[in-house]
Amino acid sequence: MLREQYEIVHFSGHANADVLVFEDENEAAIDVPLEAVAELLNKQKTIKCVVLNACNSATWSQRSCPSLSVWINPSMMALPYISPPASTLR
Questions:
Q1: Contact assessment for residue 6 and residue 14, using Cβ atoms and an 8 Å cutoff
Q2: In b/e form, how buried is each residue of 18-49, taking b as 16+ CB within 10 angstroms?
Q3: Kind plus residue range of the DSSP H or E element containing 81
Q4: Whose C-alpha in 22, 23, 65, 88 is 20 to 30 A from the C-alpha of 29?
Q5: Quick one: how far is CA 66 from the chain centroid?
Q6: CA–CA dist 86, 82 (Å, integer)
Q7: For residues 85 and 64, what is the distance between their CA atoms, to the nearest angstrom?
Q8: Segments in the chain forming alpha helices (H)
Q9: Chain centroid to CA 38: how far?
């Protein structure tokens, strides 16, 4: 993301109350604060749309990520849970 310029960013993965879960180079889970992700995205002037599909995103609020300039009510499209079979897929 730092080397290329994008207009749309889509994250589909795991999350907790205020973090998105990424993998490091050793495939270990790493929690990244939602606010830190928002700050990075806000620095990218070409981004026009960000879609975050993640477990537990129904708990997010404007207070979770105040730097986002536009906030869509997460309960409209949030995943309240992931079924056990889906959570084991890689």
A1: no
A2: bbbbeeeeeeeeeeeebeebbeebeebeebee
A3: none
A4: 65
A5: 14
A6: 6
A7: 29
A8: 34-43, 84-87
A9: 9
Q: By CB neighbour count within 10 A (0-12 exposed, 13-18 middle, 19+ buried), where does 54 fall?
A: buried
pTM: 0.64
CB 52 within 8 Å of CB 9: no
28-87: per-residue pLDDT in tens? 999 999 888 888 888 888 887 777 778 777 666 666 666 666 555 444 444 444 455 544
